[in-house]
Write a structure and sequence with these properties.
- The structure is a single chain.
- The chain has no helices and 15 strands.
- Strands 3-4-7-8-9-10-13-14-15 form a 9-stranded antiparallel beta sheet, with no helix packed on it.
Amino acid sequence: EAFRVGGHGSRLEYLPNFNLKPESASTVEIGLNLKHNAVFMANDALRTKLSFYHTRVRDYIDREQFSVGTQSYSQYQNVGKVTLKGIELDSSYDTGRFYAGLNGSLAKADTYSGRPLNNAPLKRVVFTVGARAFDQDLDYGVRWSSTASTERSSATAPRAAGYSLLDMYASWQINKQVSVNFGIDNLLNKAYTDPQAGYATTNPSSWQGTGRNVKLNVGWRFGG
């Protein structure tokens, strides 16, 4: 962050910041961890982790954008004291043959002045449903994720709309030597804005996240 330099095209240039100070933080966190076996049947398992946190950060590092004439610049700067607070959930249910998982985070990050940050945690929930076959050598399922709208302080693109994506995946350990992994990310080929990138540009096409992405990987292990 201190040494980042370069740019994308001729309209935006990254500037290093040799006066950047390290962040310091204090955190209070309360967590709950639940483990239950044989909930609905003899061999199932339910696992849940829930945590609440409240963090105060001094010299918070955020990405700032400013212009001099027609030239735009981006630089990491210390923006002062920032409060981060939120809830995180990690829950799973597994019967051996079928499983489901629910993960999510609800976060809020504001400076003491109340303005939004460009570099802040996301509000997101992920739900997974899957199954196993062939003595659990085949694992397949679908994953649905939803990200809430995100406010940014950048003047060029202050808001990234919320979106939901559907993925599918499968992995098959055929034998000790051969494995196959297959997946399709963004199965419905939905257009969306990636809130972690592109908010510092006025070109909407550069805000777009990855469209439908098909992946296939075959692994072959030689020897024992």
